[in-house]
Design the sequence.
């Protein structure tokens, strides 16, 4: 509808899990919120399986529960994570991460990304406070201390007191706002599929840093795992093009039959690996959340958890401003959000990048260093217990 103006308090660009959870976090306010998503409403309402299993910490589960989304996810889709093992090359030695002795609770839960999206969409529809504007992309955005103006691909213009970008780590909205980012295209892809296998996984995740590849096996239902193989882009494309029989033969060989005989239990999916760190997390009348702010390497499985906690922090700051009758886009409010997110995410982001560099290196010195690093971590309980505690926060 060309030339049509619509005014909102907050416009969220991106209807992924973080964008939807942010809109849901504002559900108890009187703010007028819009969520702009380039996918159709039907696709947003019925998200397809995309291969990704999200490792949720207890902090993330609490947020989803507060929003009403956790209970909307079927129990059969919540796979408990009872422990994790990290291996290097041909060595049988493994660093073990387990729940504290005597604890009956798992480290966390694995939930399909599509089920989280589905639950958050249902939450938004039940709240009925946010307007979903689907099937359109953002082609222009201007911002100042007076507010933001967003132009959609159909010519429609939206005005907002605050524009929130949640549209992926290669965020077009971030670019329109003139916010730079460190973008690292790693030249690798993560190939994901579910497999059935002969051997039991006992709800233990395994991450295996092998030569020229990284393999992760995430335990789902009995004798079913999500298998993730990280490879150079050309090798991932070649593997993805194989027919099912040849694909399974190749996977079995790459896994060195750790799972025994395997069969496919889902479609296959491939994602190029890109990490991002925005130079700023806010601008006048605008803020970045989720992958638009920080795109984590998936090796530590914490990107979603950081995004979920970040949106809650921003939402809490906005709700506090509403209660105190302050401007929701006040620079002090947005600066507090940025400071919190930097403190919370920077150590893990940079440590993850160092870890990836160490464990993807093929130089003999790197192989020795990572083997020594695993043994160092295993025999320093505070390292393992600290990481386990972080998962259980």
Sequence:
């Amino acid at each position: 509808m060309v030339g049509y103006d619509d005014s909102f308090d907050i416009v969220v660009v991106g209807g992924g899990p973080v964008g939807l959870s942010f809109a849901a976090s504002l559900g108890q306010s009187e703010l007028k919120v819009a969520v702009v998503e380039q996918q159709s409403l039907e696709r947003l309402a019925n998200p397809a399986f995309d291969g990704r299993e999200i490792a949720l910490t207890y902090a993330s589960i609490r947020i989803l529960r507060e929003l009403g989304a956790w209970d909307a996810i079927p129990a059969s889709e919540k796979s408990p994570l009872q422990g994790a093992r990290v291996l290097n090359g041909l060595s049988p030695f493994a660093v073990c991460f387990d729940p504290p002795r005597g604890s009956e609770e798992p480290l966390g839960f694995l939930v399909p990304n599509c089920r989280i999206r589905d639950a958050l969409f249902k939450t938004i529809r039940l709240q009925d406070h946010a307007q979903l504007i689907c099937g359109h992309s953002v082609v222009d955005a201007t911002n100042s201390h007076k507010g933001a103006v967003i132009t959609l691909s159909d010519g429609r213009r939206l005005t907002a007191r605050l524009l929130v970008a949640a549209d992926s780590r290669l965020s077009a909205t971030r670019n329109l706002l003139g916010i730079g980012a460190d973008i690292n295209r790693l030249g690798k892809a993560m190939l994901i599929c579910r497999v059935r296998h002969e051997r039991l996984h006992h709800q233990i995740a395994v991450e295996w840093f092998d030569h020229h590849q990284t393999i992760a096996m995430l335990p789902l239902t009995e004798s079913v795992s999500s298998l993730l193989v990280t490879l150079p882009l050309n090798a991932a494309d070649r593997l993805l093009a194989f027919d099912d029989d040849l694909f399974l033969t190749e996977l079995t060989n790459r896994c060195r039959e750790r799972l025994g005989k395997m069969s496919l239990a889902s479609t296959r999916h491939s994602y190029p690996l890109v990490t991002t760190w925005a130079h700023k997390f806010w601008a006048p009348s605008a803020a970045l959340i989720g992958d638009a702010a920080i795109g984590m390497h998936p090796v530590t499985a914490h990107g979603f958890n950081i995004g979920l906690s970040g949106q809650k922090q921003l939402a809490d700051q906005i709700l506090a401003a509403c209660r105190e009758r302050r401007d929701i886009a006040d620079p002090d409010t947005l600066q507090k959000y940025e400071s919190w997110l930097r403190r919370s995410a920077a150590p893990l982001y940079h440590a993850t990048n160092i870890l990836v560099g160490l464990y993807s290196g093929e130089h003999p010195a790197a192989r020795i260093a990572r083997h020594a690093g695993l043994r160092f971590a295993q025999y320093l309980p505070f390292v393992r217990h600290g990481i386990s505690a972080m998962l259980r926060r």
About this structure: The chain has one domain: 5-183+274-380+385-391. The first strand starts at residue 5 and ends at 13. The domain at 5-183+274-380+385-391 is CATH 3.50.50.60 (FAD/NAD(P)-binding domain).
